[in-house]
Amino acid sequence: MRRVVEGSHAVSHAVDLARVRVISAYPITPQTHIVERLAELVADGVLDARFIRVESEHSAMAAVIGAASAGVRSFTASSSHGLALMHEMLHWAAGARLPIVMAEVNRAMGPGWNIWADQTDSLSQRDTGWLQFYCEDVQDVIDTILIAYRVAERVSLPVMVVLDAFFLSHTYEPADLPEHADVDEFLPPWEPVEVLDPAEPRAFNQLASPEFYMEFRHKMQQAMDEALAAYPEIDRAFAARFGRTHPLVEHIPAEDGARAPLALVTTGTITSTARAALAELRDRGTPVDLVKLRALRPFPQDEIRRVLGPYGRVAVIDRNLSFGYGGIFAQEIRAALSSLADRPVVYPFVAGLGGRDVTPDTVRAVVDRALDDEPPGDILWAGLKE
Amino acid sequence: MVEIRFHGRGGQGAVVASNILAVACFLEDRHVQAFPAFGVERRGAPVEAYIRVDDHKVLLRTNVYTPDHVVVLDPTLVEVVDVVRGLKPGGLLLLNTDLPPDRFPRFAPFSVATVDASRIALRHRLGSRTHPIVNTAILGAFAAATGLVSLDAVCRAIHQEVPSHHDENAAAAREAFEQVAVAREADR
Fold first, then answer.
1. Are A360 and B60 an interchain contact pair (Cβ–Cβ within 8 Å)?
2. CA–CA gap between residue A314 and residue A370 (Å, rounded)
3. What is the pLDDT of residues A54-69, one digit of tens each?
4. Nearest chain A Cα distance for residue B102, angstroms
5. Which pTM was predicted?
6. Contacts of A272 in chain B (CB under 8 A)
7. Which CATH homologous superfamily contains domain A2-242?
8. Is residue B58 within 8 angstroms of chain A, CB to CB?
9. B135 CB within 8 Å of a chain A CB
């Protein structure tokens, strides 16, 4: 059914559609609407799930680790400092190979205290072993939650579904909410291999000595590779049922069959604004191709090389910062491109930190600078006050 | 694309008003996007909410800077907030007030519409004398003053989005639709 729905509530309804059985979460702005609506759905008997109330995000993640260990489809949501408090348990969820899905609302880290959009919270969790998918609009949020469970359960790794604070979490817009019957076909009940069961005691997550630990880690890397390999097939299955496709790298040329002198890479809601800004630029005679990057992990390196490799110039907009280096997606992209003998010049822009608005003017300024003779550098600031 | 900004006070229903208007436009097959000002909301403090309406999918995910219309739910706000900030020349300013439009000469570059939404809300027992719930009445006035959306769609959206007192809210919208007074910028 197509209706007007808030980004946060879209997450809640997708969790209902996925027939999640255990939810544990702790409220934090701007994630609160997600768990509020889920609590209502459970209390009203719409969603047949246990909602476990906890005193912190660390405990929320611990609770869903317990639930998933018992073979139950589980969900949590967090943001910013809440996610940071989960950090230890994030490693545990991935190492225990549990297909938990979390909605993560991108919010800046303090101090200075800031509740607005900034990706540095989720990107700081890069090396925890979680898959991370970034969403552009409300429809993308609904679809990604469903795809996330299918991918997670296929490869036994947890998935973070990431959405921008306010620009997505608090935005109402029309979206298709699929029917339960269709989702049941796409996402059948999870069939766990190993289940924690008091009737059949076994040891889980025990000591892994140097003799074994490295092989466990190798298997996690293989699972990431498998996720990358399986994603297109899962995306096709989703498209066959729901008519929408969500590739990990989406290439949107300004003009069909032509390659523009510049490709602009974006993630999250900046992609949506860039679509509008680049359409206007194209109509004024400056074609710039858009590349929407959806995944941080697994990082689609081959696809990035295939799509971006042929360009002369690539600009990246990062709403995040790795202090002492620069924008994090740009860093990943430059690393992927480094194996090509002939590779584009990358212009790594940092913009929109702490919710500073990234407008069509910001996008145009970035494009102008990348097409001009500005030296590419390691970090280029956009929209920074003098 | 049409952009609209709502001014209200925390707890007054400006955000709900923007959502109802978004649903009303959606029911008439328009593309919509509604969102609140991203701040730390407190009851009674000035708040803003926005909506975009277009014939195509709304792609911009940025703040609204130059609205086509501005709706003010609380009569005291015009003294403390620059309610016409960025309003496009010739744009419409809709005020909840018991005064006629010609009592606001300072808003001369704009069309001004006024409606006593507080009185209408109270007549339909929406809220209390100190806290009338005016967000549905003001939308009836908005439909009449702008023609952007039909009164029928506003009433249907009220039934979908408002948790209770559907008939009273719809009746308030209808009454405000009839009573709004508009002074067009071009006629002044």
1. yes
2. 8
3. 999 999 999 999 999 9
4. 35
5. 0.97
6. 59-61
7. Thiamin diphosphate (ThDP)-binding fold, Pyr/PP domains (3.40.50.970)
8. yes
9. no
